Amino acid sequence: MSQRTITINGRTVPAAEGSTILEAATQAGQKIPTLCHHPDLPPLGACRVCLVEVEGERNLQPACSFPTREGMVVWTHSAKVRKARRTVVELLLSDHPSDCTACARNRNCELQTLAEELGIREVRVRVEPRGYEVDDSSLSVVRDPDKCILCRRCLQTCSEIQGVSGLRIRGRGYDSLVGSAFDTPLGSALCVNCGQCINRCPTGALTERSAIAEVWEALEDPELFTVVQTAPAVRIALGEALGMPPGQIVTGRLTTALRLLGFDRVFDTDFAADLTIMEEGYELIQRVTEGGVLPQLTSCSPGWIKFIEHFYPELLPNLSTCKSPQQMFGAVAKTYFAEVAGVDPAKMRVVSIMPCTAKKFEAARPEMRASGFQDVDYVLTTRELAQMIKEKGVDFMVLEESEYDDPLGESTGAAVIFGVTGGVMEAALRTAYEVITGEKLDNVEIHAVRGMEGVREASVKVGDLDLRAAVAHGLANAARLLDRVVAGEGGYHFIEIMACPGGCLGGGGQPIPTSPEIRQARADAIYQADQEMPIRRSHENPSIQALYERFLGKPLSERSHHLLHTQYTPRSRRAVQVQDDKSGRQTGA
After folding, report:
1. Which residues carry out catalysis?
2. In 1-153, which ranges are E strands?
3. What is the CATH number of the domain that holds 71?
4. How many domains does the structure of the chain reveal?
């Protein structure tokens, strides 16, 4: 790509052809504040916070969308720019709620940070907030319209990244408001609960529906036996929410912190990920060898599951019938573990620590009661766990490391990589190869399915079979891949789809902010954790082997089908209200 030269604040810097002023300035280490801009999204120029002075231009220009040209001279913080920027931010603050200390995004709010950077100590014009009702109808996402600054990031995320387009702007000018189509509450709107809008919202207008109070109540009830499971992607992101740089593996401190919170047993969702591979891998083998419906589609991501139910119901027969690791864990905990530990499952509460807001919706699905109870009672995001650790007064940085409890705490490297896009595929292939061929896989690292491209294809030699595989992350990418499948193209055997960019490590419940660089650091940490594991194939997990010997019998047995498998149903592409039995709130249908 050819380069051009521009001048920013008196300094000559290179700028790639086709780049914007913001991109050139960022590359040169010159900071320009933004609100509507996000590195995952195309430029919009809606907020006007990134206005800069360009010599020769009559008006100030938005740096995020204004293209560079050879020899241009830019001033990013001139008196004229600073005055305009302060005016824009003051107008945003004029009708914005001022109860910052009670906001979930306090001290992690881009509007708050920008006001501090600009030295705004008073807002000259104050308008009372509209007093919109908070929409907490969804099991996953809470919307507070009063805190919305109309940056449109959520709209872009829902349409550009996820392809759902469930959000709209209604009204004009001062009366503009972001919401779902026809003003439908989020809980009954066309929404897949992925929470990607939360991760890109600069304020507290979008947050997860918290389960912290319910979990504290369960922990403090002496009559209850509380167990917790932690997803693979939590161990490489929790540190960020507690002041550490991205990509730190904090598994040992995580387990210690959970014991200090008061959990009776600390288990690992990775155990259930290994279990998922046993069931899903054998299901794939059965479909390939016995003529089942192909390609087989993975079923671990609840946002993806709701997406296919809404948009591609004709492909539901292609879905693996396996539950997600979270739900497999809940079913096993309230049956096998309850029996082994002598615990009354009616008195057991299973808490999940997940990188995902859609897991909250998944846990409440009526299909997820194979144990005779609700298999998973409460779901906390990574952010919620960080908040509980702070509330408890735990100094995370100085904690000693500890191990997970037995028997649902032993796992393999194959389970760890569930947290990154391509990981489920790679883990399944590690087992499927050895089961099909009867031979040891020399190198368990299958790089053909790794990477951050939106859609990846690979052909993996498994014995005499050239197994055609594809991986997609982000639902807009998934849609492009599924359109090919519907058209009869690709000839795939196995497809992995994750709802969130980068897979679970980029989930809607992970620490904010998110960016390609942050997600890559998390991915690197996951692969490092895999390399450090003594066992890296799911079928070699001794605790999984014991589970089958003592309880399940074999993969795809009658008992495993009852506890570990499920089925899904088509949903309308329009918003339909369905009453949720447990909460009384509306859930999307």
Report:
1. 280, 283, 300, 320, 359, 362, 367, 504
2. 3-8, 11-16, 51-54, 61-62, 73-75, 141-143
3. 3.10.20.740
4. 2
